[in-house]
Amino acid sequence: xxxxxxxxxxxxxxxxxxxxxxxxxxxxxxxxxxxxxxxxxxxxxxxxxxxxxxxxxxxxxxxxxxxxxxxxxxxxxxxxxxxxxxxxxxxxxxxxxxxxxxxxxxxxxxxxxxxxxxxxxxxxxxxxxxxxxxxxxxxxxxxxxxxxxxxxxxxxxxxxxxxxxxxxxxxxxxxxxxxxxxxxxxxxxxxxxxxxxxxxxxxxxxxxxxxxxxxxxxxxxxxxxxxxxxxxxxxxxxxxxxxxxxxxxxxxxxxxxxxxxxxxxxxxxxxxxxxxxxxxxxxxxxxxxxxxxxxxxxxxxxxxxxxxxxxxxxxxxxxxxxxxxx
Length: 326
Known about the structure:
Strand content: 15-25%
Oligomer: single chain
Helix content: 25-40%
Number of strands: 13
Mean pLDDT: 78
Shape: globular
Distance between the termini: 18 Å
Largest sheet: 6 strands, mixed
Radius of gyration: 21 Å
């Protein structure tokens, strides 16, 4: 089955620089004083309107829960903020957002401000080795964060990493994929003891989805939609530490709808357009239909750290051949 992903005409991404005061003119700073390899592109982007900078003489308000205590203290001291935005067609990604973040980094360094990403709900380091925007795009460079939720009514046994069927109360959802004209992805129903495994799996899937998507956008700049397979094959080269190939299934998912048979309410991470608009806002990641075990069995089987246990499985078992074969 194919999943159709609508492609917008433009994508907007914002970065916030919160500071106590601005000792210079923001409009003259960006793009002319954005140093490094992004300076020329920043000048071009500002001229054609894909890069914009707006100075607000009021503090920036946020309810994000991922900031540290020190970051919250710094935010309380700020009196002004600057919004740096990139608005560009999808085929201009990821360069457009890299230029915007490079400009925001430069502003934060010059004003001793705090650089924030409202889409991921987190801050971005602007000192030391992280002072400059990396020229080579990697999704792991603070472009994503993860919303980890547990069902409100969940009653879990004592934490036991070896008990793969202990509970199914965990839901992990990405924050940031829509910046690249992609739906967010979620894994719902794993054991809460497997928080790290779930996040690692989603990170691997996200990297593969973004790499394929950016390649498609480059070769199809005028496309209004893109069709992807509902089965995604993850190869050893897609995994940070290598490992066995495996398959995941992607399912269009209404982030506001409850699952039949589930107990308790779920605090949903809402992303993208409202339900009923016809657009896909979230893809549910799960095992392929040929897998006979539980979600937790499959989740652990995809992790490189479990290769020893996978080696003890009969490779000729039909169901497992379908799941693990590339």
